[in-house]
Specification:
This protein is mostly helical and 197 residues long. It folds into two domains: 3-103, Arc Repressor Mutant, subunit A; 115-195, no CATH class. Helix content is 58%, strand content 6%. The chain has ten helices and three strands, in the order H-E-H-H-H-E-E-H-H-H-H-H-H. The protein has helices at 9-19, 29-39, 41-44, 55-66, 86-103, 115-126, 128-136, 143-150, 158-174, 178-190, and strands spanning 27-28, 74-78, 81-84. It has a three-stranded antiparallel beta sheet. A hairpin with a 2-residue loop joins strand 2 and strand 3 (81-84). It is elongated.
């Protein structure tokens, strides 16, 4: 994982506010959003138009910055202006070395890697059913154990089981994780009734 992957979008929003002088005066959220886009266009652009800032992504980053607990890092002057609180200024000071090393280097800040999907595959690889399949090419007969792998309930409908399986297969395929993909392909062959086959 690269250093930029460790930087969340809400942190970029705070950095943008600080860069625009929000320590001692209120900054318009639109100006902060444009600064976020300038710093990290891959994070804050439209999906189909990399040349345009996406206000929804910027708004979400601001909401996450405002939701930090227990410390209030940002205060509102009106619906359109924000200023760093004393705690927010302290947070910037405490994180300047970490953020500055990436953001002041001039290199583009890429989109974060898909940590949630990587975590999903890692959980499958650590699971008992996967370990059993790896050793014996079989899977446990208990439905609840496979339900845990697919993150559904044992009494979910076959439709839900198929959807969870296909979503997980898509993640494994995109990550080129052939072992997990082969494991997932085994499940409906060994237990077709669970998937409505």
């Amino acid at each position: 994982m690269s250093p930029s992957d460790e930087i969340a979008n809400w942190e970029l929003f705070l950095w943008a506010l600080a860069s625009l002088g929000a320590s001692d005066h209120f900054v318009d959220v639109e100006d902060a959003s444009l600064e976020c886009f300038r710093i990290a266009p891959a994070r804050f652009s439209w999906r189909t138009r990399s040349d345009l800032p996406d206000y929804k992504k910027c708004s979400k980053a601001l909401q996450e910055a405002e939701a930090r607990v227990p410390r209030l890092l940002v205060k509102a002057g009106d619906p359109f202006a924000r200023q760093l609180t004393a705690e927010g200024q302290k947070w910037i000071t405490e994180n300047t070395m970490r953020l500055g090393a990436v953001l002041q280097a001039g290199a583009p800040v890429p989109e974060p890697s898909r940590r949630a999907t990587s975590r999903l595959l890692a959980e499958i690889e650590r699971s008992g059913p996967f370990a059993q399949w790896r050793e014996t090419e079989t899977v446990p007969p208990e439905k609840w154990r496979i339900a845990e792998v697919l993150r559904c309930s044992p009494d979910s409908s076959p439709h839900t089981w198929r959807e969870r399986l296909e979503s997980t297969r898509a993640v494994a395929y995109a990550s080129k994780n052939t072992a997990v993909l082969r494991f997932l392909d085994t499940l409906p062959r060994l237990h077709p009734d669970w998937f409505g086959a």
